[in-house]
Amino acid sequence: MALIKCKECGKEMSDTIKKCPNCGYKEKKKISKKTLIIIVVLLVTIIGGGITTGKQQEKAKKEYDDTLYITGAKMYVTGVVAEYHCSQIASVWHDCITSRYCSDFNSKIQNYLTTNKEGLKKLEDYKEDVSKNIQTLKNIPNSDYQKTYDKLVELYGVYTKLVEQAISPSGNYTTYISNYNSYSSEFKSIYDELKVLQPEIENYKDKVSDTD
Q1: Burial, 113: exposed, middle or buried (Cβ in 10 Å; 0-12, 13-18, 19+)?
Q2: Model pTM score
């Protein structure tokens, strides 16, 4: 045992005690170099991990936004194409019904479908792409997207009906026209509401390939 001086009050005390009996000073335990290195490494790892997570979340959000915008734009552009085919089919149907020289409107409509087979096939393919995107978009990044997603799904419901009217017309002429007008009006109305929620969709229309 040896006597040492207290660093605080200067009084002598035994080197075996940790606290000065005179002033109560207790020397703080020094952090070893090894411990310090471990602490620094842990801090760097935690901070780095936080930065990485932030970047991953930002990337995921951008990917979600891109998918959302292109899906909305794709539904609008190809929905307009579906409307065009529906109006053309309705015109062929009407002309055949009102013409004394046309007795089989089914064959006339089938002829239209055959003539425009390639364009209608593209339309069907786009509908499948949109359907896949809708499934992907189910996993919304946060609650702020819920209204947009719900409106997108609502638009999709009418969009599919329009496409079906174009690629597979059925029923009688009166019903066909009634459904077409109803779907077309509803489609435009819902899209306008979606556009208010996500105006950026308008800028993605040019990214949608042309469908004849």
Answers
A1: middle
A2: 0.71
Residue 149, Cα to own-chain centre: how many angstroms? 8
137 contact partners, CB below 8 Å, separation of at least 6: 64, 67, 68, 71, 149, 152
Contact 105, 88 (CB under 8 A): no
> Which candidate, 141, 149, 156, places its Cα nearest to that of 62?
141
**Position 75: which residue type?**
M
Helix and strand numbers (H, E) in the chain are 5, 2
- Tell me the pLDDT tens digit for each residue of 116-163: 999 999 999 999 999 999 999 998 888 889 999 999 999 999 999 999
Closest CA to 85 of 184, 157, 196, 11: 184
| DSSP structure string for 171-193 | S-HHHHHHHHHHHHHHHHHHHHH
Nearest C-alpha neighbor of 1 from the set 27, 13, 11, 20: 13
Closest CA to 81 of 19, 36, 126, 31: 126
96 Cβ neighbours under 8 A, 6+ residues apart: 102, 104, 105, 108, 109
**Other Cβ atoms closer than 10 A to 76:** 22
Question: In degrees to the nearest 10, what's the CA dihedral of 48, 51, 55, 61?
Answer: 130
